[in-house]
Design a protein that fits this description.
The strands form 2 sheets. A 5-stranded antiparallel beta sheet has the order 4-3-2-1-5. Helices cover 55% and strands 18% of the residues. The protein has 3 domains: 104 residues, Helix Hairpins (Orthogonal Bundle), CATH 1.10.287; 48 residues, Roll (SH3 type barrels); 81 residues, Alpha-Beta Plaits. The termini are far apart.
């Protein structure tokens, strides 16, 4: 009995000694963690503001700030772990092994992260650009670490992984300051081609949104089954593209009709062969 009480007393004394020895370190570690997170938050906000002002792309600034914040938090965790007695080398080894396991499990996510890095380094597009990619079209609203978010004209949200996006074909419709509106319009074979061309060229010259020094085109491109087909290519500033796109079609129709020309519709001649009842009865 005395032996058991002696062992319990020894265990109790060791517990008190360990508690006294490590409680101070544990409290200091908690204080360091709380204060460190607060300081990292302040530093990250300051770096984010400075990066947004100093870098040409706000998305790149946010991306780099997020990486900066993650690195600082990782260093803070390692420091706190060492304060409470965890061997730093062992802790780093555990993190490395965990990182390897996570990397193997999330290869697709790492590919998307690499895609985000490529997008932010080479900058094929930025937030606000209108893109065609992966069979989709829309305005870029956000470039994240793993995905890029688009918004279509009908306000649908489309989320595309950065890996396939960075490695696929991208059409950036707003990267250039100038875009061309292309329209096909046909006139009757009986109409005067030169007169029709002059009417459409006059319309392009009269529209202030059409850039006159970009090589606008009004030319016959096909002799169709029912019409002589013209190609009208009018260059405009990118900001004016959609307004011109929707306005120029009715304007061209009115200009052609005002010139006395005809926009034909498809026609087909049908010849009816009438046979007598006697002919139908004979083989």
């Amino acid at each position: 009995m005395d032996s058991v009480e002696t062992q319990l007393q020894t265990f109790y004394d060791k517990a008190i000694t360990l508690g006294t020895e490590y409680s101070t370190q544990f409290i200091l570690a908690i204080v360091l963690l709380v204060v460190g997170l607060w300081v990292i938050g302040k530093l990250s906000n300051g770096v984010r503001r400075s990066a947004v002002k100093g870098l040409p792309d706000e998305t790149l600034a946010k991306f780099l700030t997020n990486i900066f914040e993650v690195v600082l938090k990782l260093l803070l965790v390692i420091s706190v772990a060492s304060m409470i007695g965890i061997q730093t080398t062992s802790f780093i080894a555990i993190l490395g092994a965990a990182g390897l396991a996570v990397g193997l499990a999330f290869q697709g996510s790492l590919s998307n992260f690499a895609g985000a890095v490529m997008i932010l380094i080479f900058r094929p597009f930025k937030v606000g650009d209108y893109l065609g990619a992966q069979g989709l079209e829309g305005v870029v609203t956000d470039i994240g670490i793993f995905v890029t978010t688009f918004m279509t004209f009908d306000k649908r949200i489309i989320i595309v992984p950065n890996g396939p996006l960075a490695n696929g074909n991208i059409i950036n419709y707003t990267a250039s300051d100038v875009r061309a509106v292309e329209i096909s319009i046909g006139i009757s074979y009986s109409d005067d081609i030169a007169k029709d061309k002059a009417a459409m060229e006059a319309l392009l010259k009269a529209d202030s949104r059409v850039l006159q020094d970009e090589g606008n085109v009004v030319a016959v491109v096909d002799l169709g089954t029912s019409s002589v087909d013209f190609l009208v290519r009018a260059f405009a500033k990118t900001d004016d593209y959609w307004d011109l796109f929707f306005d120029i079609r009715p304007a061209l129709k009115a200009a052609v009709e005002d010139a006395g020309l005809t926009i034909p519709f498809p026609q087909r001649d049908i010849h009816m062969i009438q046979e007598s009842a006697q002919d139908l009865g004979n083989p």
